Amino acid sequence: MTVESHLDELKLVVPSPVQEIDDERLARHGIRLILKRDDLIHPEIPGNKWRKLKYNLEEAKAAGHTRILTFGGAYSNHIRAVAAAGYYFGFETVGLIRGEEHLPLNPTLAYATAREMTLEYIDREHYRQKTSNDVLGPLRERYGDFFLVPEGGSNAAAVRGVAELPAEIDFPYDVLCAPIGTGGTLAGLATGVPRGVRVLGFSALKGGAFLAEDVQNLQLAAGQVTDNWDLQLDFHFGGFARRPAALREFAQDFEVRHGVSLELTYVAKMLAGIVDMASTRQFPSGSVVVAVVTGPSDA
Question: I need a surface site. Which of 81, 201, 260, 295 has the fewest CB within 10 A?
C-alpha cells in the first residue's frame, strides 16, 4: 500500500485551505495577505512536516525498510511527526534525542513514546557528529537496517514534497513566504512557484545566514537550483525557541484580530516580519503575499 493510498484513511487535508486576512496594517500599504493553512493538513503530521515526510516514506517503503531513524531535540516537532507517521504508516521508529534524558518526559517525547517510538539519548558532542560513521555504525549494529531521515526532515525527498505546495494555489500572487529552520521548506517552495513569484524564507534562527548554502545544497541534491528566493534574517526575536513578550503580544493581537492562533517558534515570527516589511514598504503596493502556516499553535 502506498503513502498516497492512506490519504483518505487519515483524513489528510490536501490541498490545504487558504484564508485571506483583512488587516489594516497591510491594507493601508496596498498589500493583500493570504494564509496557506498547512497547519490544518493533519493534527499529528501537520504542515511542512507532512510535505517533507511524504516522499521519504514512499522511498522507505519502496526500498523495503521497516524502521525509520531520525534526530531531534527534546521539543522537536519533527520527532513528533516522525513518530506519528511511523505509527500510521507501519514503520518502527527510533528517535535520537540531543541531550540527557529527563523524567518525567516532556509532552513532545511522551507523545513520541505513545506512538511507539524508541528514544535514545545522545550527548551534544556526539550529536554534532550524528551523520558520521562513528555514530551511525553502532546504531546500525543496535537497530539493524534503517531508513535515515535527517534532522528536520530536510533532504531531496523533502524538497520534492514541499515543491508540490505552490500548485495548490489557484490565484495569481507575487510573494510566497514561509518560516524556516533547516532550509528544506524554502528550497522546495522556490522550485515549485510560478515564474515571477519571489519566495521569502524567514529564519527562526539567530545568525541564520548559513542557511543560504544549505538551501542551495538541498536544491542541488533535488536537481533544480533557482535564484528566486531570499532569506529574511531580522525576525528571529532573539533566536530559536525564544519567545519574548513582544512576540507573544503580536501573536495574541493577531488572534484577536483574525481568529488564528499562531505557533510561536516559527509562524508568529514570519507574520510579524511580514507586517513589519509592509510598514516599511518592502512590498510594492498592490502585492499579493501568501504566507505558509507550517504548523499549529503550541500555545
Answer: 260
